[in-house]
Every structure is written in structure tokens, then in C-alpha cells.
């Protein structure tokens, strides 16, 4: 098991438990650090509270008192806790460094680190990279924002094993020394401004992925993203671009129906199963990263000829009597639904709706040309109905939930149609998570078979 050999802190406050905080606290304790934990939601009788106390941690529950900072030389913060939280504001005044647990994972990892971030496409690209390496007989472990705590995983990574990390802006803002051997920057769109307070802060957090890199490291970046073009001027890493618009000789690109890496033909576009123009960008980033880390062309081709997508992200579900069902429940905003709609040339029956955040959805209008019907649900169904009427869509059905939407869509469909769940809204008006919403859609589709 890997140890925190050069970790320069001794007395640490873990702020917020959940999975990442619990893993961080246990790891720090196992490495001889003095640990204080503060969590708002934990209860005295919770197993994790009892276990951490038994391991030697001081545990404060139900509050984040400012005196919890006394004697502390580092804070490990749950990524979801904003920086305007009173205890974080006080810590900043006291100049106490604040990290998230991926910084600990960096100190623990004994092998090369591949870090992937961006506003969209992180999970798909992370999964593609890992599968390309595995199919090339390269040892690899995946963790981070993808749902696996990086600290837990990094303890067991060997020097010959790549640690592939999906990284959010929340995680990256809490880094000091973190440095991936290969950093991947997919794109930057305006997002999470309620947390970061400004676009400038959001961009800075994302770009922390390469701030400590040297020219021995690689930075794979989207050569068509204007924001990234400006930001990478500060990078010291070896730059490796990707582009779906033009030929970039020192990176990955599309030419005459093929994907290339540094003028080497990799795979024909027509052989790729994963749909969507935006996924071509994700594939280019993955190909470049995989090649830089030892993947074979055959391993890459094997993945791209079989990979149908990450669950809930424009995921192909099934074909029922010639109707193609796609689950894009992760499309919790208008931009994601725009990308989904632009992925299909066939007639589309769109299933949409959810939590009302005040959007009017007019930005979807240019993307509705192939939509023959809309099945609408959730708080926003009347707003979306008005949009559909304004666009001249004749078949508009309002239903109670996703299950009924799948049934109605099938009844209206014909052979060759795409039935697409891409809600353009968060799920919280009816479902706990977008995963729950997507799972219910998948179950409804399978009942049609």
C-alpha cells in the first residue's frame, strides 16, 4: 500500500465526510497524521463517526465551528462545500491551505497520472482512454469525479499502472502541488458560476490541471476552443492539440473520413459506433491521450468499434421493431440537449422536461428541425409545449413521468425513428438523480421489447 511519504502537513481538518472525506480522513490517520473532522449532517451513532473516533480522529458533528481551525495546518474540503462558507472564509483569512482529496491521491500515487477535465464530455473521454489502454494490455485504474474516490484507489496503484482521473472544477480548485503526467482539457463553457462566482474563477480552476506541469508532461487540448487557446499560453507542458475542423500535425484530427494521430491513420469514422459530433471531439482527445501513453492502434480500434457510450450520456439502449432508443438523461441543461439533437439525421421523438430553473428553452429552436414529436413531463412541460407549438411541431404529448413518455413515444413512432430522452433539465422535481430518471427510461424501453 502506498504511503504519504512527502506530504508536508501534520494536523489536518477534514471538512465534510461523504465518500471523499471519509476516505481522506482514514488515509491521513493511517499515515500518522493528526485529524479533526467536521461534518454538518453526521449523527453521533453513525458507523463512520464511531469508526473515525476509534481510529483516533476528533469528530465534530452538526456544525462547522470556527475554532475547529485552531492548530490546523491544512484543510481537506469536500468539493461541494463552497468557498464562501464561513469556516472556509475564515481559513482563507488565516492563510490555511485548502485542498480536495485528489491532492492526497497525487501524493499517494506511485504510477503515471492522466487527468481529464472540461465542461462537457469528461466521463465519456475518461472511459474511452481507460478502455483503449486496457485493450492495449496497459494496466489502468479509473477514479475521481467518475464516482470512485481517488484517495482510496491511489493507495494501491503500482508504478507501472496509470491512474486515470476524471476531474471537476470543484476538485481542481482545491489543488496546490497536483500534477498529472498527461492533462486533458476538452472544452470550457460557462458553468457552475453559482459556485465559482465568476467565469474567470471557473476557468482558473479548470486550468489548475496544468499549472504544475513541466515540459516532460503532456497537455492534450481542444485546438478549436478559443478560451483554451488563450489559457494554454501559460502552460509549460508539451502541447498536443486535437481538432475535428482541421489538420493538426502534432496531434489528433479528422481527414477524409479517418481519425489520425500525428499523420498516422487510426480508424475510419464509419467504423465508430459512438454517435454525435461532440463525441468525435471526445474520441480525438482519447486517441491522442491513449497513444501518448502506449496504446496500440488495434486496441484503440477495438474500443471504438464496440463502445456505445457511457450510461445516461447519449447511451444507446435498444432497438424495438426498428425504433432506436437513446438515453441521454445526463442532459440536464440546454447545451447538452443541443448536442444530442445535432447527433441524429433520422426523425427524432424528443422526450424532455424536468426541474424549472427559469429557462425559456428558445435556444433549442435551431436544433428541432428533425424532431417530429415531443413528449413532455415535469415542471417545464408547459414551457416546452409552447416552444414546440411555436416551432410547428404537431405531435405534442404531456405525460406524468419518463415511463409514460417512453410508452407514448413508441405509440407515435415509426420504423427508423430515434426516440431520444434528452431532458434539457435537472431531474430533481421528480427524481433524486439523473441516473434514477435514466434507469426508469431504460426499464420502460425493455418492457416494450
TrEMBL record:
Under Gene3D superfamilies, the record lists:
Mur ligase, C-terminal domain (3.90.190.20), Mur-like, catalytic domain (3.40.1190.10), NAD(P)-binding Rossmann-like Domain (3.40.50.720)
Residues recorded as binding ATP, renumbered to this chain, are 118-124
Q: What chemistry does it catalyse, as a reaction equation?
A: UDP-N-acetyl-alpha-D-muramoyl-L-alanine + D-glutamate + ATP = UDP-N-acetyl-alpha-D-muramoyl-L-alanyl-D-glutamate + ADP + phosphate + H(+)
Provide the Mur ligase central domain boundaries. Answer: 116-290
The signal peptide stretch is none
Pfam families noted in UniProt? Mur_ligase_C, Mur_ligase_M, MurD-like_N
Highest taxon of source: Bacteria
Could you identify this protein by its name?
A: UDP-N-acetylmuramoylalanine--D-glutamate ligase
Amino acid at each position: 500500500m502506498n504511503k504519504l511519504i512527502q506530504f508536508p502537513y501534520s494536523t489536518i481538518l477534514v471538512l465534510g465526510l461523504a465518500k471523499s472525506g471519509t476516505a481522506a480522513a482514514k488515509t491521513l490517520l493511517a499515515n500518522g497524521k493528526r485529524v479533526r473532522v467536521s461534518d454538518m449532517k453526521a449523527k453521533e451513532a453513525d458507523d463512520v463517526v464511531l469508526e473515525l473516533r476509534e481510529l483516533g480522529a476528533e469528530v465534530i458533528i452538526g456544525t462547522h465551528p470556527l475554532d475547529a481551525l485552531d492548530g490546523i495546518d491544512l484543510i481537506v474540503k469536500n468539493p461541494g462545500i463552497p468557498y464562501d462558507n464561513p469556516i472556509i472564509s475564515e481559513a482563507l483569512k488565516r492563510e490555511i491551505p485548502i485542498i480536495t482529496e485528489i491532492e492526497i491521491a497525487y501524493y499517494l500515487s506511485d504510477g503515471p497520472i492522466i487527468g481529464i477535465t472540461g465542461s462537457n464530455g469528461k466521463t465519456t473521454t475518461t472511459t474511452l482512454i481507460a478502455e483503449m489502454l486496457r485493450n492495449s494490455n496497459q494496466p489502468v485504474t479509473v477514479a475521481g469525479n467518475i464516482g470512485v474516490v481517488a484517495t482510496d484507489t491511489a493507495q494501491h496503484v503500482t508504478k507501472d499502472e496509470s491512474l486515470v482521473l476524471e476531474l471537476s472544477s470543484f476538485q481542481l480548485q482545491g489543488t496546490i502541488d497536483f500534477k498529472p503526467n498527461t492533462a486533458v482539457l476538452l472544452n470550457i463553457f460557462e458553468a457552475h458560476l453559482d459556485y465559482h462566482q465568476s467565469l474567470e474563477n471557473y476557468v482558473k480552476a479548470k486550468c489548475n490541471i496544468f499549472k504544475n506541469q513541466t515540459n516532460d508532461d503532456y497537455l492534450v487540448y481542444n485546438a478549436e476552443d478559443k478560451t483554451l487557446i488563450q489559457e494554454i499560453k501559460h502552460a509549460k507542458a508539451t502541447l498536443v492539440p486535437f481538432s475535428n475542423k482541421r489538420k493538426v500535425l502534432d496531434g489528433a484530427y479528422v481527414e477524409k473520413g479517418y481519425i489520425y494521430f500525428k499523420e498516422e491513420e487510426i480508424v475510419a469514422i464509419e467504423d465508430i459506433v459512438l454517435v454525435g459530433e461532440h463525441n468525435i471531439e471526445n474520441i480525438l482527445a482519447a486517441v491522442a491521450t491513449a497513444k501518448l501513453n502506449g496504446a496500440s492502434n488495434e486496441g484503440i480500434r477495438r474500443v471504438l468499434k464496440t463502445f456505445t457510450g457511457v450510461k445516461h450520456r447519449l447511451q444507446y439502449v435498444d432497438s424495438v421493431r426498428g425504433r432506436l432508443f437513446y438515453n441521454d438523461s445526463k442532459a440536464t441543461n440546454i447545451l447538452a440537449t443541443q448536442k444530442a439533437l445535432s447527433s441524429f439525421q433520422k426523425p427524432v421523438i424528443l422526450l424532455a422536461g424536468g426541474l424549472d430553473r427559469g429557462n425559456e428553452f428558445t435556444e433549442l429552436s435551431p436544433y428541432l428541425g428533425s424532431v417530429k414529436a415531443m413528449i413532455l413531463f415535469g415542471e417545464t412541460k408547459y414551457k416546452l409545449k409552447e416552444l414546440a407549438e411555436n416551432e410547428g411541431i404537431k405531435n405534442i404529448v404531456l405525460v406524468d413521468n419518463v415511463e409514460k413518455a417512453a410508452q407514448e413515444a413508441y405509440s407515435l413512432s415509426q420504423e427508423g425513428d430515434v426516440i431520444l430522452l434528452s431532458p434539457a433539465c435537472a431531474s430533481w422535481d421528480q427524481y433524486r438523480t439523473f441516473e434514477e430518471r435514466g434507469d426508469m427510461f431504460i426499464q420502460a424501453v425493455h418492457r416494450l421489447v
